[in-house]
Amino acid sequence: MTAAARPANTFGGGFARMLSRGGLWPALPAIVFLTVFFAMPLAVLFAFGFVTIERGVVQPGTFTFQYFIDTLSDDLFWKVWWRSFWVGTVSTVLCLFLAYPLAYVYTLVGRFWQTVILVVTISPLLTSALVRTYAWLVILGGRRGVINSMLIELDLIERPIRFLFSDFAVIVGMTQIHLPFMILPLITVLSARDRTLEQASLGLGASRTETFFRVVLPVSLPGIVAGFALVFAISYTNFIIPQLLGGGNYTTLAVRVYEFIVVILDWNKGAVLAFLLLASCFLFVLGITYLGNLAMRWSEADR
Amino acid sequence: MHVQIDGIDKWFGANHVLRRCDLSVEQGELITLLGPSGCGKTTLLRCLAGFELPDGGSVSIGEDNVTHLAPNHRNVGFVFQSYALFPHLTVVENVGYGLAVRRVSKAKRVRRAMETLELVGLQQFGDRYPARLSGGQQQRVALARALVLQPKVLLLDEAFNALDAKLRVAMQVELRKLVKKVGITTICVTHDQTEALTISDRIAVMFEGRIDQMGTPSEVYERPCTAFVADFLGTANLLRRRSEGGSLEVGPGIRISSTFDGGVIVVVRPEDVMLSQPIEGDGWGGRITFSRLVGPSIEFEIDTGEDRPVRVLSPRRGGDRYSVGDRVALALSSRDACVVLPHQEAS
After folding, report:
1. What is the pLDDT of residue B263?
2. Parallel, antiparallel, or unpaired for β B3-12 and A57-58?
3. Helix pair B135-147, B106-119: axis angle to 10 deg
4. Which of A174, A292, B148, B233 could, after both became Cys, cross-link B116 (CB 3.0–4.6 A)?
5. Is A196's Cβ below 8 Å from some Cβ in B?
6. Which residue, among B341, B59, B60, has the nearest Cα to B228 in the 3D structure?
7. Position A253 pLDDT exceeds 90
8. Closest approach of B224 to chain A, Cα-based (Å)
9. Which is nearest to B332 in space by CA: B291, B290, B286, B271?
């Protein structure tokens, strides 16, 4: 090919070639943006875990693992971590059990009800999670909370039940607020499933229940894994819900990060905790997808 | 097992898909439901399997009336067009699925699955997942999965569609051999007339929700009873003629007998018309307007002065004497023509 046969080396020609050659070029704007506004600040934050800071100034020439060692050898850290993990896991499992039936029903009903389900699922996302958390304060609150005042009105209880400021309140709030993130991937996978598989199963003598457990459920595993990883990641790292619904003495890893960096202004410890929170979250998500892939060996030939 | 369908009706909304269909299939017979897309053949098959419930009429398999029985209680083998293999199960698990549902022990399940896989020649692929099989192999797994339960009837819905042409022919022959070896009553659905002619004991030609004709492949091909059947199977010249007093004239000097009077259609297969040099006088004939080589034969179109040309298929040897523009005479043996009523009047 001669040079003359190539498109003229104008901006337009060069740009078109850049796009058509593929590779990473089309992703460049996003990469630049994420590097400048996400990766670099994060790197700076993590770096704060390894240097000494005095009165807001990084002391040059100081490099230490001391903050990591201190944190990891602190019993309180492990207690708080366990609570983050436990609350995140319970609320994710609850989300799965609540979302799956709804997503399954979505694929059985007509167009009208599908729209209703979608609107009901998505509309909470239009309000901020903070607002929805406050709503739970109102619902679960003390004597004047919605539930308690109703129960008292009905003479079922005499004194208000303490819902707020407990694991229960945090899990309820988290489950409700993160439910759409479980429903949507499940709806996607279940809607796209091949219905003839179910007919084949019936034709081979399986009942509807058996068909569900032997065919529908395993085939929807990709959606379960995606939803589980997503909801776990956002539940495990959420700090608004545990802070508001858990109350002042309730703390999780994410809440502690917030306290150290914003309230106590101990950036060293805050940075170490942020790093540990993010790294462990990353490992958990990797673990979930790894287990998912183990269970989905059958789909490897598709890729 | 004997299959009996009596007066089945099926509506999809305002769409009358099956119109009082009757079908009777003998034990061990291989029947093909043949017809264009939308003729109701798949719906009829799905009524047999129980995936659709008919709005009227009855379905019996053996001695049992199964009209309203759910598919999981019929013991009917169904091979889907897409095969519908379970992607998350290996070949052995797929074949053993029906046995697992019937609580057969694992060892017995695997043994019977392997026996059936051997029957279709796939015993060495037992551990594979369906996604790693070729189309032909997937089809054989689907077949094995249906056969392992020793169903009363085997139903195949366009089962050869997804295969490429060469493999399709091989699989058709293989299916016929297999089904005959097992001795199972089999009903296939297809829109491919060659497939129907190759594999079936009898063919049921369907059109607009009705079975137009049922007969052996040669009966249906040689003695079509409607213009639609004649046209759908192979190629046919459909000549509009008037029949009077029990006979009609196909062309000058060619009279055949007819059981109908009035406007009829004479069905003449292109290969049954003979070409010759025109002789003096006015016999049936015309001018060649088109010719093309079709493998071992030559196809001619001859303008006889009617609105549509007559198509003639001659062996290459002998046929190559004629070329476009030549005048030729046409000859026809009276037993090779068949008289049917025009479509509008056929009930």
Report:
1. 86
2. unpaired
3. 130
4. B148
5. yes
6. B341
7. yes
8. 35
9. B271
Residue A299, chain B, CB below 8 Å: the answer is yes
pLDDT tens sequence across B132-183: 999 889 999 999 999 999 999 999 998 888 788 888 888 888 889 989 998 9
Confidence of residue A159 (pLDDT cuts 50, 70, 90): confident
Q: Which of A202, A296, A302 sits opposite B72 (nearest CB)?
A: A202
Identity of residue B280: E
Q: Which element (helix H / strand E) includes B334?
A: none
The H or E element spanning position B124 is: none
Residue A2 DSSP one-character state: -
Could you identify the residue written with the tokens 């077949």? B143
ipTM score of the complex?
0.81
Residue carrying the six token digits 């005959």: B180
Round the CA-based radius of gyration of chain B to a whole number and report it.
24
Give the Cα separation of A140 and A161 in Å (integer).
9
One-letter identity of residue B258: S
CA end-to-end span of chain A: 36
Residue B38: the pLDDT is: 86
Residue identified by tokens 């998500």 is A285
User: Using the beta-carbon criterion (under 8 Å), do A205 and B84 form an inter-chain contact?
Assistant: no
The per-residue pLDDT for range B9-34, each reduced to its tens digit, is 999 988 999 999 999 999 999 999 99
Residue in this structure with the two tokens 């006889």, named with its chain if needed: B304
Residue with tokens 């003839």: A196
Residues forming a β-bridge with A58: A53
- Within 8 A of B102 by CB-CB distance, chain A residues are 205
Contact B330, B268 (CB under 8 A): no
B135 CB burial (10 A radius; 0-12, 13-18, 19+): middle
Q: Which residue matches tokens 């084949």?
A: A200
* pLDDT tier, A303 (very low <50, low <70, confident <90, very high otherwise): very low
Q: How far apart are CA B161 and CA B86, in angstroms?
A: 19
Say what the pLDDT of residue B281 is. 66
- The amino acid that residue A7 corresponds to is P
This prediction's pTM: 0.82
Q: If you search the block for the tokens 């600040």, which residue do you land on?
A: A41
Sign (positive or negative) of CA dihedral B334, B338, B344, B347 = positive
Please give the Cα distance from B189 to B40 (Å, whole number). Answer: 10
